[in-house]
Design brief:
This protein is an alpha/beta fold. It contains 6 helices and 13 strands. The chain has a single domain, classed as Purple Acid Phosphatase, chain A, domain 2. A hairpin with a 2-residue loop joins strand 8 and strand 9. The structure holds fe (ii) ion (FE2).
Amino acid sequence: MTVLAHLSDLHLDGTPESPERTRRAVNHLTGLPGTVDAVLITGDVADRGTLAEYHQAREALAPLYERYQVLLCPGNHDSRPEYREVLLGDCGTAPVNEVRDVADVRVLTCDSSIPGRSEGLLEPETLSWLDDALAAAPDRPSFVAFHHPPVTLGLPYTDRIGLREPDALAKILEHHVQVVAVLCGHAHTAAATSFAGRPLLCAPGIVSTALMPWEQDHDASWQTHSAPPALMFHRYEEGRLTSHVRAV
Ligand SMILES: [Fe+2]
């Protein structure tokens, strides 16, 4: 059995208040009497992508790193050079793609950010890396994780800035039947749908919760901060994935 805790969209902005909601999630996970196999964070770690925000993220997430494997990918609010410098300790500008074996599964975290843009794209370099990494372990159940959902979710604000060219990803997934599910963030609301014949699961937002059109007043914001932060647990055993949402 494998259990992944999945959180997203911390949007740490360098103010003293902003880590509070992240801390609630971190405390929940570090205070579990049992354990999970890894913690996945699907982007928008920072709000404006500054070095100070990543230093704040490193500090806020430190207790997680002490106890768990932590897997991260950037979102549209992240900035690759600063993200790399503080969180990865390198100075590149290439997409941040990583493959990690966690208990019985493989997790492939991909960089769907486009520098300077809000919408997402898996660059050709990322797609070919993904194809190769999946081909290298065809019998290992795998999860593909990145920030921007490759389908619309009925959220007017985020649907406009989703993943461009999702067909290129769908084509790759066609050749890799071991991909169990696609895991995303960006939506700021827990959402379950499908993509390329697999479950597509979006983690709720730590910083805020997006409102559906029927939950909004005309002039109101697309998001609310009055709902508690929340995360997901994805449990995979013997071919079956079950996902649970937990407010913290
Ligand atoms: Fe976000």
